[in-house]
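[scheduler] slot 2 assigned
[scheduler] job type: sequence-to-structure, two independent chains
[scheduler] chain ordering preserved from manifest
[runner] begin chain α
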Amino acid sequence: MPVYLDCAATTPLDPRVREEMLRHLGDEAGNAGSRTHEYGRRARTAVERARDEVAAVVATSRGDVIFTSGATESNNLAILGLVRYGEATGRRHVVSTAIEHHAVLEPLAELERRGFHLERLRPDAGGAVDAHAVRRAVRHDTLLVSVMHVNNETGVIQPVEEIASLLSSTDAFFHVDAAQGFGKQIAALRHPRVDLISVSGHKLHAPQGVGALVARRRGRARPPLEPLMFGGGQERGWRPGTLPVHLIAALGTAARLALEEHDERERRCLDLRVRLLQGLAPLCPVFNGDPNRSVAHIVNVSIPGVEAEAAIEAWGDLVAIAHGAACTSQTYTCSHVLTAMGVSPSAEEGALRLSWSHVTPLPDLAAMVHAIDEVRATRGSSG
């Protein structure tokens, strides 16, 4: 089997997380909404424990954690849930960036269709937006600022903590899509001025299909969100439906382990990054995104003279990697992120995202280099 280098798309399930999930699928049968018997009470206890474990990562309280199906749903609730408040207060201006995930860009586009004015800021050539540019864009009628934590294509860390500090003198709500950074970059998401945080479990060695929206209170006031769905009133009415206890318990366990093991996990990821880039150095890869501002577990590179599809095919038996973002890679269209950064068309066509975790083994780097050398030789002889 090829070495899995697509952890930015989804991570392998941690065995300890799987054990917790299966325990609730097997031995525990209660509905967390059933308060009249022991089965329901145990289910509720598991949910609240998970709420505490997710809250601890961002240094908030359990009452600020709303469980969802993942970061896409959380992003939609955070953005579209503010529509009525924005309309009622006349605050129809929204600030975001040109490098957000489509799970943010598309809800923002829906805001535009509803009459809101959206301002999209471009990043610098290294892939990061300027915090002061974000602050300058904020007006008296700005409802929301939405800036991702870690870019899913380049791995570049956005200046979330600095933006949060600069927004402290404003009333604008600050939303962060933290799908790639939650549990991996700790400090920024603990800033009390980050109001809304979207979390996805499957980026953190939890199962697919579970996530959270952290809706942090300012004093005693909760963000004025309106639900997108209606039903049984679960999750303070913001996200109705029977709680999937097994998934929520698994997410809580994954969050706790990420916090407890953060330093060691980051050390392992950094070690693999160094060895991986050293091994691929003979190919003269070009970074798409400033490597000095990137997380330890994602790198985006172009190999001169080799298109991404050719590299992916050549490495098919060696590593599993992605062409840009997994959610849009089936279309093989140019990346809106790299385009916003000003990356050349040839570099975009060759862009490869390699992403790993603390449990990823080192691939056969010599074989990877040899495979690309063969692609270049074949193209050279046919040219």
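[runner] end chain α
[runner] begin chain β
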Amino acid sequence: MHVHLIAPSNEDSTYIKPLWVATLAAHTPPDVEVTFRDDGLEPLDVSRALDGAGRLPDLVGLSVTSKTAARAYAIADAYRARGVKVVLGGIHVTALPDEGLEHADAIVVGEAEGLWPQVIEDARRGKLGKTRSLASPSLYRHEGFPTLENLPLPRRDLFTSRRYVPFDVVQTTRGCPYPCEFCSVSTYNGTTFRFRPVRDVIAELETVGPRVLFGDDNVMVHARYSHELFEAMAPLKKSWVAQASLAALHKVENVEVMARAGCKALFIGFESVDDTTVRSVGKKQNKPSKYVEIVRQLADHGIAVWGSFVFGLDEDTPASFERTVEFCVQSKLTMALFALLTPYPGTRLYKRLEAEGRLTKPRWWLESEHDAGAPFYVPKQMSREVLRASWVKAWQAMYSYGSIARRFDPAFDHSWIQNLAYWPINLLMHELAERKIAGGDRGFRKHRALDLPFGL
């Protein structure tokens, strides 16, 4: 049997090794051939033969996010038109399984560990989706959430391209208790923490390269577990980057243990510099009055900060954009990402905006160039046109040459990212702001992805 896994592309695709592929391959029986294609690296031509060797697989699997949905469905439809069985999984079809089933023979709802071998066996016997319950014969789902203990090591041998950013992705925890209105993590992974045993994580880290990207939504999610893990990591001498919540970063002992373990940069969801705004979306752990102090503390321990901010929240006004850029300059953030608020299906935000009649394109993810039409809802404090125009100006202001110069201070930030990569990264972000954000160059990221941080 031949199983072909495909990572669907979209205009925001990043050149990061997809952990879901390595995970599914590790859960595939050894007598089944597994191949992989990254649509972002090698685009599929759905109008022609889908396999360059002319050989069609027995089963195709795709993981679908909202921003890859249109492309994933096109690929799935093309394979099914050629008689190939298709199974879809991922956060988007978990939220919208009925939509996913319009393009697949079966859907994996939620996490695939423990389900994937059954999917393979059903496909091998020609009974894909036919042996499930009568209520949902084409859905494979867990009762509850699977354990993270004794998982097989991901199969990273499938990642042969040198175009990927040189980081190996490792995951240690799942689940998130924070009720952020616009986030779908807790819907997909649950509202309680699940942890991989530290010994299992260390065993995996011993098999990967010197640079690691933790795939956790919050790498300092539970102090006792995180301290145990990071103390065990320190002798490995890895350099790593990750996402982290602000909830634990005000404590210097948490920052110190991350630094000892090799942390070089954190992606932090500040979301807004306004107290009222962060509280309104459920981010009670964010305290804007503490932002500058936290950034400085991280910098003093050699950890650069890539800040994430969301524009278009209900409390945002036209003045919010300028205040946000001012904060980024004042705190000397190494980088910042400005996102337009996006109503992802399955989130409380989507349901609320739908109930309030504020969605302008309820199935925005089916557009071929969905980013060009954003925002997909009516903001409260400004028009959609003003929101988008102000978002563009914020990107340009953040990555103007003057802003880049003012944010640089080698005496302030002692991380290697700041001291060695700050100027190349920020000059490339300047180009992204002007060409992609302001100029609408859809091919920019595809041409320059290798040069941008984490393949942005």
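[runner] end chain β
[qc] chain β: The chain has 17 helices and 14 strands.
[scheduler] slot 2 released
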